[in-house]
Amino acid sequence: MKTHIMESHMTHPLNTSTDSPNTSTGKIFTGLVFLIGIGAFFYFDLGQYLSLDSLKANRDLLLNYTESNYGLAAAVFILVYILQTTFSLPGGAILTVTGGFLFGSLMGTFFVNIGATAGATLAFVAARYLLRDWVEQKFGDRLGPIQSGFAQNAFSYLMTLRLIPAFPFFLVNLVSGLTRINLGTYMIATSLGIIPGSFVFAFAGRQLGSINSLSEIASPPVLLAFTLLGLLALMPVAYRKWTTTRSLPKIS
Fold first, then answer.
1. Please, what's the b/e burial string for 35-62 (b: 16 or more CB within 10 A of its CB; e: otherwise)?
2. What is the mean pLDDT of residues 152-171?
3. How many Å from the N-terminal Cα to the C-terminal Cα in the chain?
């Protein structure tokens, strides 16, 4: 009996009706940190620096600094990317282009991957910590089947969401935190799923002078290719469902 109770608790560790005072204080503090971070970004108009025009205007300064302080420049770039992703701020695309411009297509993609994966993980953990309890209590009965299905095929589903540009990166981070996906699976699927898109934008950064708009990078053929890759990631799920359906006994 004791073992059964422990297993049940581990299966639904967040279905508690009340939070302890320490937990509530931690959630309030975490929420305030996010509100202050997002508020500061817009109050100081930091978005003006995350534009194609700003990057072109400061290209020589940025290149000279990177060449003279490569390690520090890479560390600062990764840190900025982590903060941008964690706080779900605009500017991810231009930061990726900047990474390619400063560090090259391959190393730019590598640094972007580190920053984006780390930031996405922090956003995921924050959403799970702040909101999942409430969501499970409010909609637990209706979300049960969806949660189970997502957990069983989490890697394929998340890979698809990462590959298809129609799904905003920040939104996938936050919504994933409300599911029962394993943290390790989330990190691996995120890291692998963002590689194609990151490389395309980092590669475009090497041709900065010929780019007039970010929409030129995400052309219809490129978007179609990403969509097909995303659908390809769903093939294992479709195959498992097909084999399961075939194995079911037919009712005559």
1. eeeeeebeeeeeeeebebeebeeeeeeb
2. 87
3. 42
